[in-house]
Please model this.
Amino acid sequence: MLLINCPNCGPRPEIEFRCGGESHIERPGPHGEVTDEAWSDYLFYRSNPKAEHRERWVHAGGCRRWFNLVRDTVTHRITAVYPMGEAGPAEAAR
Amino acid sequence: MTVRYSALSLLREGLNGQRGWEPAWRDASPKARYDAVVIGGGGHGLATAYYLAKNHGLTNVALIERGWIGGGNTGRNTTIIRSNYFYPETAQFFEFALKLYEGLSRDLNYNIMFSQRGMWMLGHDRHGLEMLRRSANAMRLNGIDAELHDGDAVRAHIPGLNGTPRFPILGGLNQPRGGSARHDAVAWGYARAASALGVDIIQNCEVTDFLIEGGQVRGVETSLGTIRSETIGMAVAGHSGVLAAKAGVRLPISSYALQAFVSEPVKPCLDTVILSPATGTYLSQSDKGELVIGAGLDLYLSYAQRGNLPWMERAAAGVIELFPAFSRMRFLRQWAGIVDVVHDSTPIIGKTNLGGFYVNCGWGTGGFKAIPAGGWCLAHAMATGEPHSLASAFTLDRFRTGALIDEASASGIAH
Amino acid sequence: MSGSRTDGGTTLDRGRPVPFNWAGRRYHGYAGDTLASALLANGVSIIGRSFKYHRPRGLIAAGLDEPNGIVQLESGAVTVPNVKATQIELYDGLTANPVNAHPSVDFDVMAVNSLVKRFIPAAFYYKTFLWPNWKLFEPSIRKAAGLGRAPGEADPDTYEHRYAHVDVLVVGSGAAGLAAAEAAAAIPGNERVALVEADAEFGGGLLSSADQIEGMAAIEWRNAALTRLEALPNMLLLNRTMAFGFYDHGLVALCERLTDHLPPHERSGPRQRLWKVRCRRVILATGAFERPIPFAGNDLPGVMLASAAQTYAKRYGALPGKRAVICTNNDSAYAAAFALQDAGCEIAAIVDTRSTAGARAEEARTRGIAIMSTAAPLRARGRRRVNALEIVALNDAAKRRIRCDTVLTSDGWNPAVHLHSQSGGSLAYDDDLQAFLPDRAVQDAVSIGAAAGVLTMDAAVTGARSLARGETPVLPPAAAVGPTRHFADGDIAAQKAWVDFQNDVTVGDIQLAARENFRSVEHLKRYTTLGMASDQGKTSNVTGIQVLSDLLGKPPQAIGTTKFRPPFDPVTIGAFAGRAVGADLMPLAQTPAHDAQVALGAKIEPYGSWLRAAYLPRNGEREHEALAREVLAVRNSVGLFDASTLGKIEVKGPDAAEFLQRIYVNGVRNLKIGSCRYGLMLNEHGIVYDDGVFARLGEDHFLVGTTSGHAGAIADTLHEWLQCEWSDLKVMVENVTTGWAVMNVAGRHARDVFAEAGTDIDLSAEAFPHMTYRAGTVGGVPARVQRVSFTGELSYEIAVPWGYGAALWDALMRCGRRYGITPFGVESLMVMRVEKGFLHVGSDTDGTTYPQDVGFGAAIAKKTDDFVGRRSTMRPEGLREDRRQLVGLEITDGGGPLETGAHVLPGDAIEPRGTQGWVTSSINSPTLGRPLAMALVERGTQRLGEAVRVWDLDTWREAKIADPRFFDPAGKRIHG
Model:
């Protein structure tokens, strides 16, 4: 059971949170100019990596604030937590 | 050629110190080139290889698996087989799979232990009952067996159900032809039959890259060298996104951990399969006597293939809510697979935008019951270049057009 | 010829004899016995039958690795199936029975399987049962499967959960664990240290050791260490507590047994406790499991693990037999030989596969014990108990036969690496120890003592202290174990050499698996079922890997192990559920008028997470009678409904209107202060997500209404948009659903009743028109009132702070008495709204319904702004002409109401094939005196008046598509 470091409340167990999926997904617009492909990308296509993943979580059972974190999808190790609206740590050199 | 299995063969080998048994499948070394390559040695991949040979006469086929065959979700699921789907496209597809399962043991000369002892979905309130009725009618109108029963009849059919539950059992929808099978046997049966038809099954062979030229796939680089082919099918479930990315193909899937649990084995105490939408718990009793219990998804990406405590607690509560007597039984083992979830819980089978590259994925929590049809249709697509009529709606394009087949919404439960 | 009681027993209390019952006979043991030790001491040899072949089996171990001693404990409601006799603490009057044997363990009819064993090897069932089909054979297979019996009655016990956060968790209280706990507690900063031990007694191997540690006898060293630990203020000691799961981020799950060791009538309080412990550091002192030697006949009762015999003798004062042969490849079995000799057992010989006997050879000779070097067991003889052992010299195959009634074997030790592996740690095969050792750890977890392959106590203690302090100790090299005699491929003797005792898997089966190409360790396991029994392979997995390694010529490291999964040892299902059972499982909420409605005889039902009145029958009315009465009362006079469950969300801020403009399908910005509007919300996929009335309380202040039970999710969604996408908007959102109780008074006398209750709000039709909002007081209490109507009648939804809800209900009932005010329930409300053709999201919509399907196409066309889900509704699928649309259905065959969930087929349909839609709501209308329905039908709005057929489970009905606004379509009554 993950231990997640909420930026406001400190380390809390996974069951107090909800995951909102990948971070930094841009909502396309204006709606009249968005193609079906671009809209489909936004709704359905995610990177789904077997590696570090930037994802957003909300502390639903606590402060109810959203934030971002970087978590490895194999080891579940969380290497960074950063506020919603920020870009987060630079990606590791490939 | 492998020895034909039968009671006589057991008799013969029993007297012969078991010395005459042959390998169930050939361990082949990869050739430089094949007419078709199937990536993924789970149920869907093995079935695809088999049907390429059996239905389409394509035997110069390689099935490559990075680990050992049947080692992924096929070896980890709760073994339930049913076709109680709502929309015509999915209902007909899963019903085809069920029909293939009905004849599969004889077809493969391998006892997959398909036990058709019914699959019950319970209704716990007015709205739940209405949804069950809607589903029952949809099933019947798609030519699939469905029976709707009231609460008393459900309890009469399933002794031991809770008499004074927090979630009253007001009724149930039974698919009598639903049930379960031995998951390993499905994989091994297909492998043996495919191998017997000439398919090369290559284990411990991991795809590291794709050879692409002129918008067409030309082969794969693997840990055992380069294998060329212009027809490549992929059936790797939770790893679909990772592998397709190597081919420059994007898929709308998310990979999550799906857990299951077994209890210690006891004498028969449950002879059907039950799903309770209220608690999200589904359970059955295997032929070995263990209660096999499924639960829901931990909704954050995971390739870890391991279980987690919260769902164990929720599944336990769900089991006890249905069968209070089972509280004193004990969980023996907990595990997880990696499931490839798409938004509408309906699979993706067929072409991609890369020439000669076909996918079979998007099974989410419901891949095992579909194995024969998934393999049949992927083989068809690979052999003919066109989708099988049963899978014509399962395209990638539906995510663009919005023509989703949302089974989860239709029935209100995870599929 | 069998076991007996002897002197000694470090944890036995001879002052307290304990009577118990086994297989219908009465025996006596002592406090401190396990059921296993007591049976052994009482000379019970055959304790069970193997799963497949029903061969007679005796105990081979003394702890949780025991594969044979599986029993049914007690009966009735407190029974537990499949408990290991070695884990049952003996209590007064304990009753236990063998499993899977009929009529008894001594004589089991299913032993016939053993006679045909050669025809039913591993995986035989895949090769047969093909004709006619599996259905014919399955019932017999299922009846033969399983060991114990599931309980038949509800569990009378309760279970609880507890949490702990510790700096260090030490698992296991042998020498290493005790030393580590003490060292960890001494480190400044370690404010909480916990030591957990699965056994009832702390001490592990110390309880049966004859060795000395730091100059003291093992048991005295243990007593002293424990005393010191008990005095430490920062130490939590938990016995009878099994650490069974090591999860992410230092979470270790424990199961503590609280009352299982007591007689049933003495038990009270929770039976077991699930601990969820978050640890900064975990020290695994989980010990090691001894490996049995596979040889022909090694499953005969009387053949057991050497350390187990030592434990029975030293800790429990129980001797397994009178004349023993000890077979080994390492030194530890010598201690077992000496312990048994001291307890009065004759030691016929020690058979050692090593050419030079180890450190203990001198003592053996002093004790007069013959040592046969470079020799191994070949075959155990006997029918229901071993009576002789054939041994073979490894170098020249010369055989000898030794008479004995007990054979102890030790093929080395397997560290208990389960928790280390579960935590993500890797393993490395050690060629000296011929075992898998913990290699790299992924979390802050370190293995010590035997769990790390350190098998001598002094070294274990020194190493434990170092590691607890964070140092890296220098450990003495492990003494290499001797060889194990292996079987040639196809050797007939391999078919009688048992590896997995519970699942009846032999060396021959492993050879068969390899022969058929099941050569990976996972295939081996699944094909043979080796390691899949209730002991999960603790005495068989590594042996199986070694046999396979030998067969394939592949080193064990390359073969690897199967995955180690929680729970380490089986854990009660009830313990996982804890208190979440019965009414405490997802508890339901009650409305303010709940008690008042119950007093009136209401039929209360769960609707989502709420308990609500479906209807309130009088004088034994059936449902349809109650509904008719309630509906007509509202239509003709006035009714009262508890609407508190409807969601209420406050949205406030300078950008509130702009925000809601982006959320709703409808326009929001232009709503006047004090006005209400009915709105539809979509999710980003364009699907109808919710509907409700929103009111503008001020320039910057809105009250958003949602369907019952949905407010929480919608408030979460609104927060998500504001925090993640539109963080520039200045808006605050709060779910106030349970802050306000809402009573809905509806009917032509609604205004009269409301006025009678006393309010400062001007209720005249001009001052308070339909779809407006007014604030003031009602009965002296602050109130928010909206004139909205789901019934289609003059209607007020009066909201007061939740605590006043019951009083408001009472007041309105009182004030309405002279108008015959009638309380009505959810089902009556549904009747009335269907009469009006009003949408009910969740009934008339599902996860595929777009707004244009329910009549909102025009509203979307009118609005130019983007809103959530808009773009999705414009995809090709959304533009299709043949979408299912919400319409009404008139029943034309003179029959009763349709079934909700019935499907709509074309008017000329004969075959029940295909579908054009389905009935979403169905009622019998008391107002109009006929049945009515609503349905989602393909192109429905273009087919008004068209005849259709409705099919429901083999029943055909006739209907006609109609406008769903059946009653008062102009809405005259609403505007009264």
Observations:
- Chain B has a mean pLDDT of 95.
- The first helix of chain B runs from residue 7 to 15.
- The CA atoms of residues 381 and 387 of chain B lie 5 Å apart.
